[in-house]
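User: Can you predict the 3D structure for this chain?
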Amino acid sequence: MKDFREYIGCIHVHSVYSDGSGTFPEIIKAAQEAGLDYLLASDHMTLKGREKGFSGWHDDLFLSVGYEINDRNDQHHYLAFGLNETLPEDYNHEQYIKAVKEKGALGVAAHPFEERDVNRSVVGFPPIPWGNLDYAEIEVIEVWNMMSHWLEMTTGLNKYWNVVHPRSFSTFPSRRLLAWWDKTNLSRKVVGIGSVDVHATKIKLFKLYTKAIFDYKIMFKSIRTHLLCDDEFDQEAEIPVTEQKIFDIIRSGRTFISNYRRGDARGFRFWAEDGKSVLQMGESGVMTRPVLKAILPERGHCRLIRNGEVIQKGKATEIDIPVKPGVYRLEVLKGKRGWIYSNHINILEK
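Assistant: Here is the predicted structure, written as C-alpha cells:
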C-alpha cells in the first residue's frame, strides 16, 4: 500500500461577508481548534475574503477562499475555488459552470438533490436543488452536505433538539443522490466530496438566549473531506501552488468523506491491485485478477458497492476481496449511521 500524506479539512464555509455569523479570524481559530489541515470557504456571490488576503497559511491550517455562485432565481448553487474575481452576475448556470471550467478553477455542484417534506420541514428554508446535473463540466459534487442534511431531517417537532444537538441526528447521505452518483460513474467520472455549508446562524431559543445553529467548531467536527496526497504541502510555496495541489487531488477523486461524529476516519484506505498494478480511488484501468483492499481505522460495518449494487457487507477492519471488472466504492457504517464514503474505483475489462 502506498504511503500517502493525508490532509483533513472542511469545505463550504460562510462568513460575515455573506450570510455567516463569523469573521475569518474566528473561523480560522475554530478550524485550528477542531484539528483541521485545510479549509475551503465560499461566501455567496463575493470574493471579499480573498480580496482581504485571508487565503493562505495560518500556522498549520491552509485556507482557500472561493465563492458560491447562484443564478438570478437563486438556484443552481455552484462553489468556485481558484478565481481571483467573480464572474458576471447575470450568467446563467450553464454559463458559469462552463466559465469556471475554462478558467481552470475547481467547481463543485452544491446540495444537488436537496429536498424537503413541505408538510413537516422548518418554515423559511426552501430546498435549492439542481434538478439536472448532466453537464460534462460538472466534475465534482457534494455527496453529503451537513446543513442540507440537517434541514432535511429537522421538523417542527424536533427542531429544538436538533439545534441544541446539531450532530446527533446525522444518518446517511441521500440515497437518491448516491444512486445517481453510482449510475453516472458507469459512464463518466464524477468525484464526490463532503461539505459542512456552515453559516453559524444565530437564533433566539424560547425568547431567552441566542444560539448559533451549527457553531463553526461543532460543524468542523462533522462532515470532512480527506485528501490523499503524494507528499507534504510546502508552506513556503506561493498560495496558488498549494491551492492547485488541493484542487487537483479533489478532481482526481483520491479523497473520501467521513462523519467525524461517528469517529476519526484518519488512516482509511481503499484500493485495487492485481500484483502488477494498483488503482487508487478516482482511478480506472485494466486489471488481471483484481483484488479490492481496504484498511479501516477501527471496526465498522462495510458495504461494498459494484455498479450501484451492494455485493458484500459485514463488519471488518480490513477487506481483501477478489472481484471482477466494475465500478466500485465502499461505504462504512458505525452504530447504523454513515461514517466513511469512498470515491469510485473503475476496474475495466481487458
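The domain at 269-348 is CATH 2.60.40 (Immunoglobulin-like). The longest helix spans residues 239-252.
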